[in-house]
């Protein structure tokens, strides 16, 4: 029986560890990172398919040059960091070509020229930078708009608050938490045309060119193919048709007409996005189950090391618990997904990185309450067992653990709930779980309040069910 269990665990380990890595190498496609909320350059349409100027240009270029791409909507920061770490082959995300970025990335020929504008609330009296003195301005991390705002804030005396996606930046101005935001002109125009209650009050400044990028001195053939394909689609008119599709007059009138007929009620949004929501929920549940499985094994081993009569093992257990409980989950996730690959040169798939992150973090907490549960058993129990001639291992297995497990079970269930909630943090490395799904839906329909209310309700339903299970198990173990 023990051999079968060990074989099963070994098989699972191989599947999770080496299976995804082999899949990545077997795919004869380029993995391209992009933003999740940057319309009209990249966003999900009503069918939750990724579209936009950047996406359409990339696909048109790929078709011309005979290669395939796999789009990874991970967010701007995650996309750039993933390419720098060698996790992805390229990034296209409305990214300005700057000297700082050229030091770490190789860029294609420019494919779009844009400038930064300042937008304020629809009824705001603010018209220029001088009126920003002493006020708060919203910016988006890592963008040309953020760089431009930061270059002005000392001169005009305003403060900046940073967001990871455009929608939250816009909403901070709409709700009057900030008085203005800085954004690329076509992106801001598109947002305003599609219902964002803002207005542009400045002319485009800090003009720059967008470029497709790959890791420095790597994937040069991809840059060559992109440049060649870009010339072809400009020559045959495909490029102009793509831009007109999203920024021409028909692009403004079309979506507005469609928006008027869409059901934007809570139930309508659920029906329209049910496939995406179920997909995100499935990814969240799968992440939780897999992570808690490995975290439990890891936690039990580390917890038991903390109670064996050996100073080295005790110290090792304490150190592991201290490190992985002390590290913020967000930092640990980014370190594993982008930090380690940049050092080793070996790709780590996002899902695997998420499992490792949760295993280490949640496993440390499990180890702590395993250790605590065993320590909670009266020390006289071990002494009595040893006095009867039982060796330490047998006394632990037959006498201490059965009593300690009763103490630990409710904590195991509670940790399962915590792990479920912690999966939302993994959206930062591009895992398409429930929270990331919500961001993508909001980028399209701008119904932030309603979509987040739906996401919150889904989490609450699952957590409530797990809480009931925890209470039931606790009553059974205490009976």
From TrEMBL:
GO molecular function, one term: ligand-gated monoatomic ion channel activity
TM helices/strands, residue ranges: 285-308, 320-338, 350-370, 449-469
Domain ABC transmembrane type-1 per the UniProt entry, residue ranges: 281-470
Keywords tagged on the record: Cell membrane, Membrane, Signal, Transmembrane, Transmembrane helix, Transport
GO BP, sorted A to Z: amino acid transport
Subcellular location: Cell membrane
Topology of the protein relative to the lipid bilayer: Multi-pass membrane protein
Main location group: membrane
A GO CC annotation given for this chain: ATP-binding cassette (ABC) transporter complex
Signal peptide, first to last residue: 1-26
Keyword Zinc-finger applies: no
Gene3D superfamilies listed in its UniProt record: MetI-like, Periplasmic binding protein-like II
Keyword field contains Phosphoprotein: no
CDD domains named among the record's database cross-references: PBP2_GlnP, TM_PBP2
Family from the record: Belongs to the binding-protein-dependent transport system permease family.
Protein name: ABC transporter, permease protein
Taxonomic path: Bacteria, Bacillati, Bacillota, Bacilli, Lactobacillales
